[in-house]
Amino acid sequence: MENFRIEKKKTLNLQVYEILKEMILSDEFKNEIKLNEVQIAAKLEVSPTPVREAFRMLAADGIVEIIPWKGVFIKKYSIEEIEEAYQCREVLEILAVKLCINIIPKDEIERLLKVLKENHDTIEERIKVSNEIHSIIIEYSNNKRLKNLITQLNDILTYDRRLSAYDGIRGKQIDQEHKLILKALKERNENAAIFYMKEHIQNGFKYVKENHK
User: Which residue numbers delimit the HTH gntR-type domain (predicted)?
Assistant: First the structure.
């Protein structure tokens, strides 16, 4: 933990949140599952309040779980649970592609392609772009039940999907996969869009499986 320090440029809550998130995803806590609020506050030389707020933010990300009267726990899923989630995601997002292929505006696709070309210096920016692309495809499927079903998968997918954001090589692969999906959508090529979406999701699970701890 000695490599993580508080700075004065950002709010304290945000800094503690970012530090803890990086520590969890980089396996800084190793075999620890339960997070100790008092110990973390002492090591970061802050009061327990920003640590508590950071826990809430991490819980919203699906990285930790807050269990009343028991504490805060790093979320861990078995590879079988993750595989089930990715199987469901593949089916649902392919359906979203089929439903949006003739609806999603081409100027919206052009905008997303331009966003992909921009430099994304931070992990949060890369995650934001990735989430936006998938969210817009799902939004233009015009199927509320489909959207709700995918949302139900977020808790189990969020932690492991963030792993790839810390890998520059995988990040570039994801950008290329997104580009192929968007170009196929722009051309209204349903078969190609389905193929590239399926490949993208399967590549994502393959990466998670290889790096799952």
Answer: 10-77
Phi, psi for 65 (deg, rounded to 5)? -125, 125
Beta strands in the chain (DSSP E): 34-35, 64-67, 71-74
| Plot region of 62 (φ>0 → left; ψ -120 to 50 → alpha; else → beta) | left
**Topology annotation, domain 12-74:** Arc Repressor Mutant, subunit A (1.10.10)
Instruction: Give the predicted TM-score (pTM) of the model.
Output: 0.73
Q: For strands 64-67 and 71-74, give the pairing.
A: antiparallel
Q: How confident is the model at residue 30 (pLDDT cuts 50, 70, 90)?
A: low
- What's the rounded Cα separation, in Å, for the pair 38 and 194? 49
Predicted confidence at residue 137, as pLDDT, reads 97
Q: Mean pLDDT over residues 114-121, rounded?
A: 83
How far apart are alpha carbons 22 and 26 in whole angstroms?
Answer: 6
Class of domain 79-211: mainly alpha
pLDDT for the residue 168: 79
Does the structure show a pLDDT above 80 at 82? yes
Other CB atoms within 10 A of residue 113 CB: 15
Domain ranges of the chain: 12-74, 79-211
Same topology between domain 12-74 and domain 79-211: no
The pLDDT, as a whole number, for residue 159 is 60
